[in-house]
Amino acid sequence: MNDPLHVQLCRDEVIANGELRVSFRRTSRVPDNQQVLYLPPDLGAFPLRAGSEYAGKICPDMSAKGGLFFPMWQSEAMWLNFSCTSERKYMIKVYVGGVNVISSEPAIEAGATKLRRQAKLAAARRNGSEAWHVQLLSRAHTTSAPSWSDTDLRHWYTERKETN
């Protein structure tokens, strides 16, 4: 159950255990104006590159983090495509600038973070987990996102933490 994942980069997909495929899909940004819009078209996969291959060409901070990167214009947006060829279930957390895109919790879990997560899970069990999934999906369903830097996100998270 807690076996380590065997992850590889194959063309423009990340493949885990030979069965879970994740691709980063290119699309166009839509106005962030509260209007209900059709989803923009899938414009293909972003070309994924291993940070280790470009260690001498990218800044040392990026190189030290490892992982993958891809080129993206400010006028573009990205969505994730998941597919799995087995019945095995995977839990995937997506972070931007060290912040979980669904829960807004930090990537590095502190005691308070763990308590909030446990409270949310307990509430989901009491209220029926399906309602919780719908809420998460509606919060996560966005096709345009502002162009945030790590500094912007840290500032936003600090302000949010101080007001809660």
Features:
164 residues; alpha+beta; 2 domains; four-stranded antiparallel β-sheet; two-stranded antiparallel ribbon; 4 helices; 8 strands; disordered C terminus
Q: Which strand order does the major sheet show?
A: 1-2-3-6
Uncertain runs are 130-164
Query: What is the strand tally?
Result: 8
User: What percent of residues adopt helix (DSSP H or I)?
Assistant: 25-40%
What does this 3D model show about the protein?
There is one protein chain. With 164 residues, the chain is an alpha+beta fold. The protein folds into 2 domains: 1-92, no CATH class; 97-164, no CATH class. 30% of the residues lie in helices and 21% in strands. The protein has 4 helices and 8 strands. The chain has helices at 60-65, 111-127, 129-140, 150-163, and strands spanning 7-10, 13-16, 20-28, 49-50, 68-69, 76-84, 95-96, 99-100. A 4-stranded antiparallel beta sheet has the order 1-2-3-6, with no helix packed on it. A two-stranded antiparallel ribbon has the order 4-5. A two-stranded antiparallel sheet has the order 7-8. Helix 2 (111-127) crosses helix 3. The longest helix is centred in the last third of the chain and has 17 residues, at 111-127. The chain starts with 6 loop residues before the first strand and ends with a helix. Residues 130-164 have low confidence and may be disordered.
In summary, what is this structure?
The chain is α+β, with helices and mostly antiparallel strands. It is built from four helices and eight strands, in the order E-E-E-E-H-E-E-E-E-H-H-H. It has helices spanning 60-65, 111-127, 129-140, 150-163, and strands at 7-10, 13-16, 20-28, 49-50, 68-69, 76-84, 95-96, 99-100.
